[in-house]
Amino acid sequence: MSGCGAPCRRPTTFPTRTYRECGVWASGAKSHRPRPRNARSSRFDAQPHHGRRLLPPTPARRERASLVTLSTLTTEDSDILREQLGRPLRGVRAVAHRCGSGHPTVVETEPRLPDGTPFPTLFYLTCPRAVAAASTLESVSVMTEMAGLLAADAELAEAYRAAHDDYLARREHIGHVEEIAGVSGGGMPSRVKCLHVLAAHSLAVGPGVNPLGDLTLERMATLDKPWTAETCTWRPA
User: Fold this and answer.
1) What whole-number distance in Å separates Cα of residue 133 and Cα of residue 31?
2) What are the CB-based long-range contacts (under 8 Å, 24+) for 230-235?
3) Secondary structure of the chain in the HEC alphabet?
4) Can you tell me the distance from the alpha carbon of 97 to that of 105, in angstroms, rounded to the nearest whole number?
5) Does the N-terminal or the C-terminal CB of the chain have fewer CB atoms within 10 Å?
């Protein structure tokens, strides 16, 4: 069981491809079209994020992301989160992202739980529909595909390392926990181990910070049972 609230399955191995070979474009909720032969080879030009181009992180984009406002955890939120997770809450600080209907999608957690356990997962994916979509991607070897992209694309790998630094800086701002110093989540900075963590990071801070989190959200929107925050159908009982 991973810290993101869902089991992260080890994908079966299959040949990986570069972004140029994959040619993944999003022209609708379920449509992919081949990459034109004369298109630019940059990974960031090739990957739109829900209708927008997925752009490389820059200091300006990271500064805007750093201004994301957290929502105060209300009694109603706590009740909904217990329903979503099926257990008591542990170390939840605030709601970091909400679905279109207003229920929590991602929470921000303390780096040390009340029982003293170090907890590296700063942003925790809670919405059951989002968790299910991320799990579906893991079950069809998307993590292996992304690992291949990291190995083949230096620009992507650099941006992913920057996302790791962003994650650590945000957690360190809450408090320093020596046992997890330098440990972020999701496999960052060089591996892909949990799409739930990467998606939660992108949802919490916005696009342009974590490239594989952004790509995870784009892929979640193209599933047979697609998920986006705007169209999420989950509702509390």
Assistant:
1) 17
2) 230/99, 230/100, 231/100, 232/99, 232/100, 232/101, 232/105, 232/127, 232/129, 232/130, 233/129, 234/99, 234/103, 234/127, 234/128, 234/129, 235/101, 235/103
3) CCCCCCCCCCCCCCCCCCHHHHCCCCCCCCCCCCCCCCCCCCHHHHCEECCEECCCCCHHHHHHHHCCCCECCCHHHHHHHHHHHCCCCCCEEEEEEECCCCCEEEEEECCECCCCCECCCCEEECCHHHHHHHHHHHHCCHHHHHHHHHHHCHHHHHHHHHHHHHHHHHHHHHCCCHHHCCCCCCCCCCCCCCHHHHHHHHHHHCCCCCHHHHHHHHHHCCCCCCCCCCCCCCCCC
4) 5
5) C
CB contact at 8 A, 159 and 57: yes
Tokens 């925790």 — which residue? Answer: 124
Dist. CA 185–CA 229, nearest whole Å: 22
Q: Considering the entire predicted model, what is its pTM?
A: 0.75
- Which has the closest alpha carbon to 205: 179, 181, 173? 173
Name the residue with higher pLDDT: 22 or 117. 117
**Spans of all domains in the chain:** 70-237
One-letter amino acid for residue 189 of the chain: P
Residue pLDDT, tens place only, 156-178? 999 999 999 999 999 999 999 99
Distance of alpha carbon 18 from alpha carbon 6, whole angstroms? 28
Tokens of 77: 């939120």
33 vs 189, higher pLDDT: 189
